[in-house]
Design brief:
Elements: E1 2-3, E2 10-19, E3 28-33, H1 39-42, E4 45-51, H2 59-73, H3 83-102, E5 115-121, E6 124-130, E7 134-139, E8 142-145, E9 151-153, E10 159-161, E11 174-179, E12 185-189, H4 191-194, H5 199-208, H6 213-226, E13 233-243, H7 249-256, E14 269-270, E15 273-281, E16 285-291, E17 297-303, H8 311-324, E18 335-336, E19 346-349, H9 356-363, H10 368-387, E20 390-391, E21 400-403, E22 406-409, E23 416-417, H11 418-421, H12 441-445, H13 451-467, H14 482-486, H15 493-496, H16 502-511, H17 523-531, H18 535-538, H19 545-548, H20 550-570
Antiparallel strand pairs: 1-2, 2-13, 3-4, 4-5, 5-6, 6-11, 7-8, 7-12, 9-10, 12-13, 14-15, 15-16, 16-17, 17-19, 18-19, 20-23, 21-22
Helix pairs in contact: 2-3, 5-6, 10-13, 10-17, 16-17
């Protein structure tokens, strides 16, 4: 069958066949799902095939459960997740399900199946594979296997399947990503086809039936049967008829055509929202306190008219609301969807408290226990974003407000969302670098961004809360290359605040390391070391005071000299 203009950017042609062949039961299963809404941009087109392991008691049921389960559950994962995380999470869950059901059967006769999937998203193809079913790509007259059989060969006549879904409580799967182009054909087969046909024969059948994927699959089935295949015979094909570079249209299009609102004054209204106060106005955006028709106080952010012809700016502005609506956590500001909207803006709950910046300016140095309590709340919010595979990328004292639930993260303008980042576009995206004093070094030298990047920013904030200073001072603003960053020297927090314990200073030193691999693996470990003395950091207690805290050292020397001077004068 042919699917024309799924999104205005993509058109594909598909075909499939599954036959029991010379066996009494068909233990193969295959399926394809082609979403027609925003899921096409967020999740892509999914084609899967599975071959139940004949030695298993419930082979046919296993392949059916995995195919149907994957096609349903993959599209139920968060829109912000990458294809790799979504697919891997679903497969691991299905594997544990099949494995647990298999435990109630005779050993070795449970629920086992192979599995291979092709996911076409934007101009990339993602491959998930376990077992000996196969995925091929036919391009420009050449056939290439994109998977390898997970088979252990004992001799020329004897081999066994080394991996399968349901074989163990843990799953070892292959994942690869490939570019896609117009004219590509992706073919999925079970061993009833590829064990009986040579690759040159498969290539010839594809070449002779390149315009009709259904006829192609029927020809593969007929020829496999004719040469003696004694297994189930299943295959399906997907041809890309049209592939322009996709955009986030399906994900974000509902707002992109709205006009920019004008700069507003106190007392003005749009969509029933009355401006009560102007909080912030800059070249890039305006933020107002408004009241809606229900007398509810909200915050409204509007884009700057300076960027109304800038697609990259508009995309990033729209994404801010998109993120906020998908993260539900008391320590992340809540986005409120308006009842009606005739202009481009978004609304959030109103948080009446101070920002962390205002708190630092007021207190200079916060109490250690107060700081740790606030950090605990910040981490809850950051982890909520990370669970959606979203990096904040602009954590700083100004972007954390004290609300009813404590420290609350605001402003999603710099966020990186894994699923949106996978969608290629002809529009050059804005490259958010955060605020230089707080952004991790890898942003500037082009390294890999990760949850450890947000950890760095958080640790700098914690350092400033305790000391009123920054761990690397203004010297941190200058480097742009790895080797330049590695020359920077961390200044002990104890030098600015003698009340900071050495083990807490050690935790800050680790979390603000120039090398991401030297930081904590996760935020919970960082928080634990802030609360509990880590013996690895206590070894620094043998370091001379002059090295640990030069200021305190010279203050002590000065006090001793003053005492000696007083004594000498008295004598």
């Amino acid at each position: 069958m042919t699917i024309e203009n799924i999104s205005g950017k993509l058109a594909i042609r598909t075909g499939f066949i599954s036959d029991k062949g010379r066996k009494e039961e068909n233990q193969d299963c295959l399926g394809i799902k082609i979403p027609q809404d925003s899921a096409l941009a967020a999740k892509g087109v999914v084609m899967v095939i599975a071959d139940g392991v004949s030695a298993a008691e419930c082979a046919a049921e296993a392949s059916n459960l995995v195919v149907k389960g994957f096609l349903n559950d993959y599209f139920s994962t968060p829109d912000s997740w990458s294809v790799q995380r979504s697919g891997s999470s679903v497969l691991k869950s299905l594997n544990r399900w099949l494995w647990s059901m298999g435990q109630s059967h005779v050993a070795g006769r449970g629920y086992l199946t192979t599995f291979s999937a092709v996911i076409l998203k934007s101009d990339q193809v993602h491959i998930f594979h376990v077992g000996d079913s196969r995925i091929y790509r036919y391009r420009d007259g050449q056939l290439k296997a994109l998977t390898r059989d997970h088979v252990t060969i004992l001799s020329k006549k004897e081999s066994y399947l080394a991996r399968a879904i349901g074989a163990d409580v843990t799953l070892d799967m292959d994942y690869k990503k490939h570019s896609a182009k117009q004219g590509d054909v992706f073919l999925a087969t079970t061993d009833g086809v590829h064990d009986w046909l040579q690759e040159n024969e498969i290539k010839e059948i594809i070449n002779n039936n390149i315009e009709d994927m259904q006829v192609l699959c029927e020809q593969l089935k007929t020829q496999s049967f004719d040469v003696g295949s004694n297994d189930n015979i299943s295959c399906q094909a997907l041809k890309i008829e049209k592939l322009d570079i996709a955009t986030e249209q399906g994900v974000l299009a509902s707002l992109k055509d709205l006009p920019f609102p004008p700069d507003l004054e106190v007392g003005q209204k749009i969509d029933g929202l009355e401006v009560k106060k102007i909080i912030h106005a800059s070249e890039r955006s305006q933020i107002y306190i408004v009241k809606n028709e229900d007398d509810q106080t909200l915050v409204m952010k509007t884009p700057s008219v300076n960027y109304q012809d800038d697609p990259a700016y508009i995309e990033r502005f729209i994404i801010e609301e998109w993120i906020g609506l998908r993260v539900n956590n008391p320590n992340v500001v809540k986005v409120i969807k308006p009842k009606k909207r005739t202009f481009l803006y978004y609304l959030t709950e109103f948080l009446p408290g101070q920002t962390i910046r205002e708190l630092i300016d007021e207190r200079k140095q916060l109490d250690i226990q107060d700081t740790i309590e606030l950090v605990s709340q910040m981490i809850k919010g950051i982890r909520a974003l990370h669970r959606k595979e979203t990096l904040h990328q602009d954590l700083k004292p100004e972007n954390i407000v004290l609300g009813d639930n404590g420290a609350t993260i605001i402003d999603f303008g710099g966020c990186l969302i894994a699923s949106v980042d996978e969608i290629h576009t002809t529009v050059k995206r804005e490259d958010a670098l955060g605020t230089l004093h707080y952004s991790a070094p890898e942003y500037r030298y082009g390294g890999v961004r990760s949850a450890k990047s947000d950890q760095f920013s958080l640790a700098v904030i914690v350092y400033e809360m305790l000391t009123g200073q920054l761990p690397y001072g203004d010297a941190f603003l200058k480097p742009n290359r790895v080797e330049q960053f590695e020359k920077l020297k961390y200044t002990s927090a104890m030098q600015h605040n003698p009340l900071v314990p050495i083990w807490l200073d050690g935790a800050l030193r680790k979390a603000t390391s120039m090398k991401p691999e030297s930081r904590y693996e996760n935020l919970s470990e960082f928080l634990y070391d802030l609360k509990n003395p880590n013996k690895d950091f206590l070894r620094f207690t043998n370091t001379p005071l002059m090295n640990r805290n030069p200021v305190l050292f010279w203050q002590g020397i000065s006090a001793v000299l003053l005492l000696l001077l007083i004594v000498s004068l008295a004598v």
